[in-house]
Amino acid sequence: MSASISRVSRRWLASRPAHIRTMATKGPGSPRPAPTSSSYSTQPPNSKILTFARYSPWSKSFPGTWRTRALLQSAFYAVGIVLATNYVDSVWFPPETGYASPREIKVAIEKLKQAFPEEGRVSTDPVILTEHGSSENSYHPASPHAVVVQALSTEDVVKIVKIASECRMPMVVYSGATSLEGHYSGVSPGSICIDMSGMNNILEIHEADSDLICQAGIQWEDINQTLKDKGIPLFFPLDPGPGATIGGMIGTGCSGTNAVRYGTAKAEWFLNLTVVLPNGEVIKTRRRARKSSAGFDTTKLFIGAEGTLGIVTEATLRLAPLLPTKVAMAQFKNVEQAVNAVQDILNSPYGPHIQCVELLDDKMMEAINVAGVTTKPLPVCDTLFFKLQGDEPAIKLTAKTVQTIVKKHGSDRFEFASTDQEAEDLWQNRKYALTSTMGAHPGSRCWTTDVCVPVSKLPELVYETKKDLAAAGLRSTIVGHVGDGNFHALILFENDGELPKVNDAVHRLVHRALDLDGTCTGEHGVGIGKKQYLAEELGEGTVELMRSIKKAVDPMNLLNPGKLYPDKN
Ligand SMILES: Cc1cc2nc3c(=O)[nH]c(=O)nc-3n(C[C@H](O)[C@H](O)[C@H](O)COP(=O)(O)OP(=O)(O)OC[C@H]3O[C@@H](n4cnc5c(N)ncnc54)[C@H](O)[C@@H]3O)c2cc1C
Q1: Which residues fall in a compositionally biased region of kind Polar residues (predicted)?
Q2: Which CATH architecture does the domain made up of 325-515 adopt?
């Protein structure tokens, strides 16, 4: 051993500067040359340490006693054990989320497969996981789920929720999948997607009470078609995107073209909800009575909650009588004229006969003509489409009033569709607005945004937004539920490189709406895309109240985490 030390030392010394050689051979007591700046930089460390550092304590050449070796080996083992434990801990028990580790996710999936052994009820197919965690209508970050489970009853949902909470797995409810702000994207490291689309039955229809009870996964169009097929002259008037379901409509606090006359999901259309809470408890928010003063309105707690407080499995819906409907159209030189006319019409004695007022800007009218999906082309200018409701005399009088008022506000073209076919043809322009925007710009993609302002502020919002989009070099069409001050810009782009430009334009649009005392979303909801604006719009106090409610109902933050509530700085 000593021979090998001296060999090593000699080799090392041979390569060192003279003063080090002197010190090493004559001992530490020998006089030391005065340091120069360069000699400081080459000053060797303790030669013994250097010699130790050169060999592993497991090496036969290690220059130390067996005690030193054993000590160093134990130290290495100890450090190794600490690092390995930390690694395993961070993978199995991710510290920042507190959610299931990959091993626990596998356990949860096994438990789900045992609870739902039927073919196709539990899927881990990567295509299905991705489809259920992302949307072609949203450009917000999205991740796939770890597993998708089809629920068919309230009991199924309870089973899933219990397994999820045992395994600390986030849950995301998925229904019609038409929401636009990344509402149902997956949660890292792995979420259970509860697919409600199979819960699509009407359970009871009470024609005499004008209500029905249905499962939450049914589409609003299917409800209305069923009522029509059964010859029941009632309908459910909330009309968001095609394919939207009752659960998703409650989740987003939706509305649609009919909001002028029938209001939004915040109104009286949901009499009672059956909800599975994050702890697996099933509650009903009310009974079937048309109204109730029994405490505060817990139904509303779940409207617009975006699946973060509970999973709605059944709902009692109020229905409205089906009324004869006709369609009219008026064209204007600018949006200001159009909006002023709408306010006058809605405030007239015939206002209650207006079911919808929709604004399509000149670019949208151009796109409709180019796409060619409607029966006849119309002049390219800012246009209002109306649906008028009532018996024949009421519709005639309403149409006359509308014609007089739009003329007063500068409209140079008014059309009234007196037959059902004419009405259908005219309304096609509104119905195919989105498809026409895409059809007129083949190969483009479309980012649909939604803001809402007090109606009188709408012309300013539309004018400034069009100017801003043009300055940014972006093409866009505009469609608005103008009776409510709600408007959507459909911004077109070709590739991912343009996304930041579109994103910035949307950001400026939202701030423009907030500056006009409006909201970042009139009907599409918050999801991931709008949560950054909530504190600015509502104030920190309101956002904190929302967070407190969430914490009280879902202390483990398992239901749709990462959506709706703004991230804390
Ligand atoms: C072409 C088009 C036009 C549109 N027009 C309109 C419009 O005019 N007005 C309008 O308001 N919206 C419109 N939308 C947006 C969309 O249709 C609505 O947001 C709709 O309410 C979403 O319903 P959904 O069933 O698709 O919900 P999903 O997209 O499946 O889910 C939406 C949210 O609700 C939650 N959720 C779903 N089911 C439940 C449940 N059972 N319990 C608790 N939470 C649940 C989800 O977790 C998610 O957070 C449009 C969309 C498109 C694509």
Answers
A1: 35-45
A2: 3-Layer(aba) Sandwich (3.40)
